[in-house]
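Researcher: Going back to the complex we discussed earlier. I've cleaned up the inputs and rechecked each line, so this should be the final set. Can you rerun the prediction on the complete assembly and write out the structure?
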Amino acid sequence: MNIYDISKQAGVSIATVSRVLNGSPNVKPATRRKVMDIIEQYGYIPNAFARGLGLDTMNSIGIMCADSSDLYLAKAVYYIETNLRKSGYNCILICSGYEHRNKEEALSRLLSQRVDAVIMVGSNYVEPEIKDNRYIMSAASQTPVFLLNAELDCPNVFCTMCDDFKATRSAAAALLNSGVTDILYLYNSRSYSGMRKLSGYQSAYHMSGLPLSNDLMQFFDGSREDISGVCHFLCDLREQGLVFHAVLAAEDMLAVGAIKYARINRIAIPDELSVIGYNNSLLTACSDPEITSIDNKLETLCSQLVRTCIGVLNGEDMPPKVIYSAELVHKGTTRLREQRQDQ
Amino acid sequence: MNIYDISKQAGVSIATVSRVLNGSPNVKPATRRKVMDIIEQYGYIPNAFARGLGLDTMNSIGIMCADSSDLYLAKAVYYIETNLRKSGYNCILICSGYEHRNKEEALSRLLSQRVDAVIMVGSNYVEPEIKDNRYIMSAASQTPVFLLNAELDCPNVFCTMCDDFKATRSAAAALLNSGVTDILYLYNSRSYSGMRKLSGYQSAYHMSGLPLSNDLMQFFDGSREDISGVCHFLCDLREQGLVFHAVLAAEDMLAVGAIKYARINRIAIPDELSVIGYNNSLLTACSDPEITSIDNKLETLCSQLVRTCIGVLNGEDMPPKVIYSAELVHKGTTRLREQRQDQ
DNA sequence: GATTATAATGTAAACATTTACATAAATGAG
DNA sequence: CTCATTTATGTAAATGTTTACATTATAATC
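Model: Rerun complete. Updated structure for the full complex:
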């Protein structure tokens, strides 16, 4: 069943059928009705591949993320897909994993599918080393690339992100202001944005004039689901004599691990230990007490990213970088003085 | 840049270029090398739409799920995508939401994209009423449909599922055996599988000969992220005088809510209240104590589903229904007697 | 009613592949 | 060296749309 069959049945040319199908205004209402009836009657669905060939697009957009089962990334994918679909786009999803080789492969796969755009979800797609981002720049020369939570200065690459530096600095400063001077910074990613967060933390110490020991910056090298691993990691640090009265975590799951650590060691929260997470995800609500966390406005970011994307695809002039501010959401694991808006 | 350009540069016909591209064995090694060189040199990527038109497939498979930001569904999508990609398929993801109308729309959207198969992720796609499943059956007449965690007897529909009935019955029976006779069954979905779980619970009471009050089966009508809503819901029940010494939850988030409820009311877990979740997700590890939960082998289910799918697409004869058994994973919120394997 | 402008429809080319079939080249057997 | 067989390559049709351009029908103007 193709457009010729329909045209024959309806007694019109294929051009007219095509026009009806595409809602062209230049069709006599009676003709439109006649054609529509035949289409309905036969349950005809136009061939999307032929359409793609003719128009050089199937209105599909590639979404890459390292691991869509990650709570945060999954939410991002959800928001992005939902927004794109409203504008008539379909999403091809690829979970690339965290290894460079696989990211590269995933990207080229999307390009060979001739997607209209590529959206890279997650800060892990941009590495601190420029040469590691070549593959993105090269892709961008063919197809516009949109980065969520990452920054890359390159033509045809559009970034939508939160100011992680400022957010982390602000959170650390709030802790320092409240009198906690030994904040353990716990992180699990050395991505561009991971390093920005770390810098924010360091900057808060700088600004306060307090000394910062390297021991207070700890990298947890484990799975993103291994909460008890985080807990043990902290227990080990404590046994090694490290003293800290706050944990500032680069991800909520690390903060959850810190809560467990505190409970095991009978450390009172927030009196003896403050904990701040990052992302303000569902995990913060599972814990008891609920975890103070930095909310980086994922939903806002995603809808802005999609807006930028649609704009670019419509040929509009769009800003290459949009930056939002994150917000510290106060819950039960901190007792901070009035939040100071630091510029 | 198309196949003609390449053929001209390489001094061969387009058929030969096509053969090289598709790894046909009937190409002289020297020719292959020559063509490959030109392809590399020009960075030629074959047009996927034209290929799709010629072959009537773009090797893409539609994945529908209600909400890919749901922890459990996100994991399923991840496993399925990863497995499909290994076999060379791309995934078009649509988050349909939970409403019938939108599910229907999502499905027809996938069909009009001419996917090779549709995978419906989540028990919510099959409703207890047969007429509500017409849209699936109708789709199946065009394209094979694969259901995860749902059951529908219809040609060209293939189900991969866990025996939720047995799993829930078994968990309830274990609680009853351990001496807890007032188990609150807490659920938040009336999907087919949701009702199967409920039946399992009821069956355990039946088998034990104990009476079962309707008040012990409670439907929580709220968001899947509203943990404190669950907590309040339980507090209200308690205030209304409902007595229960165990909560058997149809989803982990409900169990987390139960933990919060217990903490607020200073109810000791597991001594005064046992809690069992469902899915054995990350949430069970966030809670303290960690939550005993029914693990329905999501990873196994997903890889089996994909195996079935690939088999069907390869024209092999595949079983229309594959059922696995779930497993109760004992953690800190129960103290059960030796687990009895009930058939 | 003729002329012009506009609206509706049709024709045919273009999009870039795959593949059945035809043909040419290479290899092997006698 | 010839003929048969296998291997390699080429030709042309088929896939199902969209759309520029051509043509015809309709409406508007005088």
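Model: Worth noting: The radius of gyration of chain B is 25 Å.
Researcher: Good, that matches what I expected from the previous run.
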